């Protein structure tokens, strides 16, 4: 009886850990996607600014 209780406790603990990991992973994916978008926007903006600057000084 006691062994069964600890077994189910361990299982629910594992499930909680798994859920936390999944949430963390999805947050990480979301963050990576956002930072990639930001990086692309900044990259394009920097290229535009640099080309404008280069065109400004012949």
Plain-language structure description:
It comes from Albugo laibachii Nc14. This is AlNc14C167G7904 protein. With about 60 residues, the chain is an all-alpha fold. It has one domain (about 10-55). About 95% of the residues lie in helices and about 0% in strands. The chain has one helix and no strands. The protein has one helix at about 1-55. The protein is rod-shaped. The mean pLDDT is about 85.
Q: For the report, how would you describe the main beta sheet?
A: none
Count of alpha and pi helical runs: 1
Instruction: Quote the beta fraction.
Output: under 5%
Compute the CA-based radius of gyration: 25 Å
Instruction: Give the fraction of residues assigned to helices.
Output: over 70%
Shape: rod-shaped
Protein name: AlNc14C167G7904 protein
Organism: Albugo laibachii Nc14
